[in-house]
Amino acid sequence: AITGHICDHQCQYNCTRLDYDSALNIRELKKVALEKGWDEYRSRWHKPAGSGSRHPVAVIGAGPAGLAAGYFLARAGHPVTVFEREASAGGVVKNIIPQFRIPGELIQHDIDFVVAHGVKIEYGCDPHLSVEKLQAKGFRYVLVGTGTDKNSGVKLGGDNQNVHKSLQFLREFNRGAELNLGKRVAVVGAGNTAMDCARAALRVPGVQSATIVYRRSQQEMPAWREEYDEALLDGVDFEWLCNPEQFNADGTLVVRVMKLGEPDEKGRRRPVETDEIRTLQVDSLITAIGEQQDGEALSAMGIPLDPQGWPVVNADGETSKPNVFLIGDVQRGPSSIVSAIGNARRATDAILARENIASSYGNKVWNNVDPAKVYQRKGTIAVTLVDKNQREAFVEQEASRCLECNYVCSKCVDVCPNRANISVAVPGFQNRFQTLHLDAYCNECGNCAQFCPWQGKPYKDKITVFSLEQDFVNSTNPGFFVAGASVKVRQDDQTWQLEINDRGQFNEVPAQLDAMCRIISHIHQHQSYLLGGVEV
């Protein structure tokens, strides 16, 4: 329910259907899946064998990351207890994101969904619950998902006390507290939280205008475009290239006019002060220039921090304390809901691997896919699209428009002007259609990388067929060069010399080269013309 309403749907911005007409409405399909599939899922799901006998897991924080981690682990059979300091679960979605963006009953639906899988949630817990105490209680793994609940500070002169921090303001707004903001509200910052603050302020009784004040231009704002568009629709005003310096008791907000300088480390142009000063008349000011994790609370929990105050973790989110993981925003700073869920997924996958439990998520078996029909869809454009409110017709339409790029993508094959990428059907692989790169035809134009929906570089990443030994030596690509019965293979920056017979069978295959050698054998047997030399 949550991701069906407030997911930032980056998948839609990268949907391969964009090259034909428009992206699939994936986020809306999530809503339909909930509407149509929840009852059947609930009736069919059962706890896996051995549930309750596996090592117990503690999760600190019942926000999106904590709830997701609890769900993934409980579904795999681990007893999970989530410790939450608030009186209810949901974290930022429940307490911070305005309810006009997502109804409370849908948030509760997802909480109930997690609890239905056996996750236990304890409310009103000590906010400084230590990892050591939880481990002493018998929890083998501890995951910390406490979010970023501290506002970054704003240096502001003047004696006006009507200054509100964004997170506290949004909490009070969601609780229905009586707020007195006056008629004119200014919000400092231009991220997603700032957009929420401005839109929420316009819904407070008595407020007539809400203005975003940002020191950079619209192009540099960190807010997602959809958030910005919704703010515009609500009537939010914007003052670009303005940096607040002083807020006086008479309601005068003094701002420094800025100009853009050189790009910073994130690629956004730096704001540079000018000599120009402007004033705005404002009754209340809300500061929303970023959030950060509570470093003191993490230290009290026993989580090691680096000199800058950020937790030290590996790629899976595990800290230097064995079996202790950080998940969600607390690990990497404010991000999207779906990023927090994905971050939790990486940590739980690491735990399941450590427990020798296979993760079944995403292991779809392609039994009912007709490759011919999938390819046929690439040439079909929907002339008229069905409205999403016509649920049945809408779902059928979107299903028919899906190109199933996780089964066969081949966009790099389509866009290569030199035909240096080819798709080969190799039996025995989950993804039957394997993309091979032909080194001799490639001039490294980068077109395939530009269009790749997986953010890859096919001319560098894909298994490469080399026609000249010297080209193999000079390259760093994974791939192979065949010369008679000799095969040179490179994978993960290591090179092997193997022997192959005239039937395409290897004498001996290292375990790590099994997949690569199966592809080579198939090419040797069925597309041997790809192994020929080229004129130099």
Automatic annotation (TrEMBL):
Catalytic EC class: oxidoreductase
Residue runs in coiled coils: none
Keyword Iron-sulfur: yes
Signal peptide coordinates: none
InterPro entries assigned: 4Fe4S_Fe-S-bd (IPR017896), 4Fe4S_Fe_S_CS (IPR017900), FAD/NAD-bd_sf (IPR036188), FAD/NAD-binding_dom (IPR023753)
Recorded catalytic activity of this chain's protein: 5,6-dihydrothymine + NAD(+) = thymine + NADH + H(+); 5,6-dihydrouracil + NAD(+) = uracil + NADH + H(+)
Gene Ontology terms, MF aspect: dihydropyrimidine dehydrogenase (NAD+) activity; iron-sulfur cluster binding; metal ion binding
Oxidoreductase as UniProt keyword: yes
Keywords from the UniProt entry: Iron, Iron-sulfur, Metal-binding, Oxidoreductase
EC number(s) stated in the UniProt entry for this protein: 1.3.1.1
Pfam families with a match to the protein in the record: Pyr_redox_2 (PF07992)
Ranges of residues in domain 4Fe-4S ferredoxin-type: 432-462
Complex and partners: Heterotetramer of 2 PreA and 2 PreT subunits.
Function: Involved in pyrimidine base degradation. Catalyzes physiologically the reduction of uracil to 5,6-dihydrouracil (DHU) by using NADH as a specific cosubstrate. It also catalyzes the reverse reaction and the reduction of thymine to 5,6-dihydrothymine (DHT).
Protein name, entry field: dihydrouracil dehydrogenase (NAD(+))
